[in-house]
Amino acid sequence: MPDITIGKHQIGPGHRPFIIAEVSGNHDGSLDKALDIVRMVADSGAQAVKLQTYKPETITIESDAPDFRLSDGHELWGGRTLWDLYQEAHTPWEWHEPIFELANSLGLACFSSPFDPTAVDLLESLDTPAYKIASSEIVDLPLIRLAASKGKPIIISTGMASISEIDAAVAAARSTGNERIIVLSCTADYPANPEESNLRGIPVMRDAFDAHIGLSDHTPGIGAPLAAVALGAVVVEKHVTLAREGGGVDSSFSLEPAELAALVRESEIAWQCLGQPTIGAKEGEREGLRFRRSLYVVQDVRAGERVTGHNVRSIRPAGGLAPDLFEVVEGRTFATDVKRGTALSWDLV
Asked: Which CATH architecture has domain 4-55+90-274?
């Protein structure tokens, strides 16, 4: 699969993981706070910052009916109506331009998840470098086709989706001629239980859809993303906040600044550790090879003396006969005088 470019950043197995910092509703209704989050993301070393582009009226309707209310037992938003939640969490459209401008000035790729065609129009006007399809919108194939038709990379989150639904979404994107597709493994629970991440599905998804695979993660901490990188994920998306305490509607499962910086740092190390599928001594082990054990003469000996465990031992460094050959040379006689500290070789016995 060829690399994918978003902004100035290359995405693929040959590049460090592409870290997307999701702002979501953690701006807490403040543009200044949203801009501070963008600055924090840039300081962390992450490559991208992402928004969600919708209005309450474009994603739901104002209703108190049970269909429009979250279950009372929901850990974060129990009993709230969709309208109320999205009214709090949405990013006003007039904020998008200053957020995009700041992100671009700081070298970040800035893009968003559109939730309807008017959102796509807004993002196109801002020259978005990519589109992200949220998990709940994976069944909105017309929206996927519209976003993909713009010819930009399209990232599809797969929380809750069956393999046939993922296949349909990828096929919808490809039907527009767009092959720049990234599929994100995802558990759409907030926060998500690590035991439900099923990250072993990442290589399965890569083979099934012939696409780059990443992870949209809602578990606490950075353990799941690092495991995902080890399994081949080339993209990691995490929600971020300036502080979990009072940090916004999604803050309880979001990364704070130091944690995001740790994710950037440790995910790159995890990627570097993958290396190549080879087994053997590495370049950095050359010095260590010099100090493997081998057979050495450890006492001054005269010609004719027998080899014993007192005058020949397995010690460091390397250079002498292999330790396992002691039984072969034991009892033989030295052919010449040998000084202590000489590597044992066949010509000496």
From this structure: Alpha-Beta Barrel (3.20)
